[in-house]
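Protocol step 6 of 9: fold each sequence in the batch and record its structure tokens directly after the sequence line. For illustration, a two-sequence batch is reproduced in full.

Sequence one:
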Amino acid sequence: MTTELDLCEYLLARFDEAEAAARRAPDDDDEPWTLDPRYDPYDERWVLRASATYVLADIAAKRQIVAHAAEASVDRELTIDDRSVTRDEVEQRRATDPGQLILVALVRPYSARPDFNPSWVS
């Protein structure tokens, strides 16, 4: 079983990659990204309008979410070393842990990557 820390580390590494790319990308100040209802988020023109500034803000928000989710999971963390619980009980608690569920939701977009661990979402 992958621990929450492994999942957090994986997410933060992906965020680092996205942040580096955003910092290399030119930001078109003449046509800033907006939440204009005329743009469909599944339309590539909408995606192309996403500015580096937006991407960096999005990454910063996701980093905070990962930190809060990991903190929420710490209080509920159980290990097999705790002889008072069974492996099934550990898995059951992890499957319903709000922090873990948030991390799983955040990692799903990376499922096509070769370094993605399918056990994170199962």
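Sequence two, same batch, same settings:
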Amino acid sequence: MEHVHQSIRDLSVDEREEIFVSIAQVLEGTAREAFAEGNRHFAAISSNMAEAIRVNADELARDNLDAAEQVLQQAAAVITQFKAAHPYPMISTAVH
């Protein structure tokens, strides 16, 4: 994790903000998958975390980098936990 610590500090504010927005999008995707599988608790956690990151992305990118680093680590842990429990994503066979 030390590499993440160094790289986030080396990025510009705009690049950091883009990372937070991307992480929020991934969390929203895991929330949708978890909800579709019936895991409402995990879906709520992931969705709430995504919303909090999206709302505070600018502040996280500009202000306290230690807090920003913790948020990224927590989001990565949630995503990793979901991917470990669900290594094969659901594939939609719907015809539109």
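Proceed to step 7 once all outputs are recorded. Observation for sequence two: Residues 56 and 94 are 35 Å apart (CA to CA).
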